[in-house]
Amino acid sequence: MNIFLHELKACKKSTITWTLTLVGLIILFLSMFPVISQEAEAFKKLMEGFPEEIRLALGLSVENIGSILGFYSYVFLYISLFGAIQAMILGVSILSKEVREKTADFLLTKPVTRTQIVTSKLLAAFTSLLITNVFYLGAATIMASLVETKEYSTKVLLLLSLTLFFLQLFFLALGILVSLAVPSIKSVLSISLGAVFAFFIIGALVSTTGDEALRYLTPFKYFDFAYIMQNSSYESSFMMVTIAFIVIAITASYLIYSKRDIHAV
Amino acid sequence: MNVIEINNLTKNYGKERGIIDVSFSVEEKEIFGFIGPNGAGKSTTLRTLLALIYPTSGSAKIFGKDCIKYGPEIKKEIGYLPSEVFYYDKMKVSDLLKYSASFYKKDCSKRISELAHAMDLNLNKKIDDLSFGNKKKVGIVQGLLHEPKLIILDEPTSGLDPLMQQKFFELLQEENKKGATILFSSHILGEVQRMCNRVAIIKEGRIIQLEKISALQENNYKKIRVQTTVKLDENYFNIDGVSNLVVSQNMISFLFKGNINSIMKKISEIEIINVWVEEPDLEEIFLHFYEKGA
Prior knowledge:
By secondary structure, chain A is mainly alpha-helical.
């Protein structure tokens, strides 16, 4: 419990910063909605001017940009990018910082098991992401109800928004695994940004091909917004992949961390 | 009863040598010195005892329990001070010590203030703002605040000024009187001689000598340099117990082992400008004595 609280305190600042960023972004995006929905026709024309590949890569679907859910699923792409970065940085740093800041000796000579350390840190990271998502979800639902005058499904809005959390858990698990697999991490930021952008770009490329199987390559494509809007549910196969990856990555992290030698500084 | 029992402990770092076949034990209430030159394997041995690293082969027991398997349980009664201390920079000293104390299921606040007072440590500063010596003091308080039964110190005196070293040794001796067993590593023979009952000497990963400090004191080496007014006969100091004699111009230097009075008489018989009598460092002793034995 004491490690959990210590870690939570240590990531307090970043949790607040990221929460404010995501909340601010969604407020900004959704406040643009009334203007865009009024000018939907003109906007559609403008976008039809873009080549189709670019529209696909950007996630722009012309037909429903005028509805709140259509517009939301478009701007959400950028929310998810930011969210992924937050989770990846958290994942990469949470275990590796003890080695980088040379505090591993302090922590590991205390009467705790390595498993306890990983569990406490994982829970702290999980809590940090949970806090971000609660505030984000609140801001998104309130903003949507403020800017949209027509009927829309709140359930679909929630389903769309919750994909942020799943995506973040995926990147958290990935980050932790990477931090343990790479021998010594000098810069958390570059490794995190590199990985997230790589997946993001793969996602954009996969969109242009329209090949379903390629979607397994990047978590950014695990949650198809058109599908969610149509069926009010997630695609079970991709949900399974997400859960399987998280379970495997976390289990591997526990094993690696328990066996690892902590070298002198 | 043995508090620490190390049996044929071996640790390789890939192909590189760590320690080879290290065995020794430390008895209850003993102050045990662990000396050797830098890179000999002192830290490797201590870090294995603390389950920071895992042995390649062999085993070690602390309080009769395997130090890897029962690591977390054993560590309730161990205080550890590494040679270089690093803590969470953004924390205040008092917060760090409270965090440290929170791992032990007892109230340590009184003990913290006692120790901080003894070590003259300001609890309200940020770790980041502390000098190296002051960080070391935080380390000392942190290692002793839960009144451990076994204190493990890895080159504890580096970075402490002589006055603080003295204070620190007094603290350790107090703990020892209260029943704590102490194992500490060093590459300075003098401080080991002053503190310890027994020592193990490690060189290139192997224990080469294990003895009572009294035995070591019989091998009491002095490093002596004499500056004379006139050039001396080269063989003036070539008496029993002198080794490594170097004469250049008016400077004579040598290692001396034996009755210190005989050499002082020799020095007093000549006209000198200056004389230095120093503790040889361990490397020098290794060069002259242990190389033959090892």
